[in-house]
Amino acid sequence: MEDQLALARQNFIQNMSRISHFWGFPKAMGAIYGAIYLSPQPVSLDELVEQVGVTKGAVSTNVRTLERLGMVHKHLEVGDRKDYYTAETDFWKVIRGVLREREQQEFDLALRAVAESLELARTPEALAADADTAVFYQQRMTNIQDFFNSLDNLVAMLIALDNLRSGTLSRLFGNSS
Amino acid sequence: MEDQLALARQNFIQNMSRISHFWGFPKAMGAIYGAIYLSPQPVSLDELVEQVGVTKGAVSTNVRTLERLGMVHKHLEVGDRKDYYTAETDFWKVIRGVLREREQQEFDLALRAVAESLELARTPEALAADADTAVFYQQRMTNIQDFFNSLDNLVAMLIALDNLRSGTLSRLFGNSS
DNA sequence: TAATACGTTTAGTTTGAACTAAACGTATTA
DNA sequence: TAATACGTTTAGTTCAAACTAAACGTATTA
């Protein structure tokens, strides 16, 4: 590996690492994805250990997460016990994978929790104790519940779109590009 | 404060705390927003200390972040040195605020870093050293650069939309609602 | 001028997520 | 059967972010 290419690679992987961290994922996960993404051939777990510079355990767990998100794909070769990984290069598909895996469950959780708070604010006891506050709480909680529902629907829609492309939204919004 | 209402409030604030943490913000920040959101009157810093149960310093820094994101608004009353806060209740506006503050700068950073990696992979030295790898790197890096550009444009568009509502996207996508 | 009432900043501490090192389970080969 | 080559799991450690406690700056009041 020559200097400039090694530097380009190193730079790129570091950037992926930072982005990963920014989005709330482990830094090593981004670095591992970057290494796989920049590999012309499928990469084995041990090669990743060497290239990224983390231990086997860390690679094992992170690469499993990456696979769950649909960011990498596992390949088994006959007469070879190693697992090989390739990168998903369609990033819109990656986004949908992340939304499906992370956001969906979190949205459901948020919705259920708000519903529970709202239940409490709607009890006769709450109204009897402090009617003004109870009504106010109900209004505010209903407001955020509506928002969460809308967001939930929106995300579900985005996930369902299997032809989401860079131009999809901009075309719909009628921008100039 | 009666039992049911206090419970509803506590439940709600805890949920906001969890959501905040999930999106990569401090838990206290979400809790503080929740407390302000559920207050019929503007809330002072010391009231927040009492209600949320964190120290003044933490409230001070978190409430400043909330204001920067456009999630709360500061109100000064004449003949009163205290700062009072109210919650932004238009969550689509909140989303745009978060996108503007967080994502925009991070996107620019990501774009610049990829451009830098790409520069390195495009040097004559890189091509001379290992042409196949250099070309491959260039392809992959260009691919992700295009994606980042699209995403950047998309987010810029969302931020610019000052009439973004729950129905906006669903109407555009032509779903049944 | 001193005392008070604010919000802010800072040094130090806490905490939890992500890592390492190493044991482990299992399949394959000698 | 023993040795090897894998990926996985686990106990322990590290580290950065978020917090606390307290000092601080400043404006207001007595």
What do you see in this structure?
By secondary structure, chain A is mainly α. The first copy, chain A, has 2 domains: 3-87, Winged helix-like DNA-binding domain superfamily/Winged helix DNA-binding domain (Arc Repressor Mutant, subunit A); 91-165. In chain A, 72% of the residues lie in helices and 7% in strands. Chain A contains 8 helices and 3 strands; from the N terminus they run ααβααββαααα. The first copy, chain A, has helices at 3-22, 27-37, 45-52, 56-68, 91-121, 124-129, 131-160, 166-173, and strands spanning 43-44, 72-76, 83-87. A 3-stranded antiparallel beta sheet of chain A has the order 1-3-2. In chain A, strand 2 and strand 3 form a beta hairpin. Chain A is elongated, with a radius of gyration of 23 Å. The model of chain A is unreliable at 173-177 (pLDDT under 50). The structure holds a DNA duplex (30 and 30 nucleotides).
H/E element string of chain A?
HHEHHEEHHHH
Q: Helix- and strand-based class of chain A?
A: mainly alpha
State the largest interface.
A-B, 63 and 63 residues
CATH class category label of the largest domain in chain A: Mainly Alpha
Taking strands numbered 1, 2, ... along the chain, how are they ordered across the largest sheet of chain A? Answer: 1-3-2
Assembly annotation: homodimer
The figure for the number of domains of chain A is 2
Low-confidence stretches of chain A: 173-177
- What is the residue-averaged pLDDT of chain A? 91
3D shape of chain A:
elongated
The total count of helices of chain A amounts to 8
Give the number of DSSP strands of chain A.
Answer: 3
Distance between the termini of chain A: 40 Å
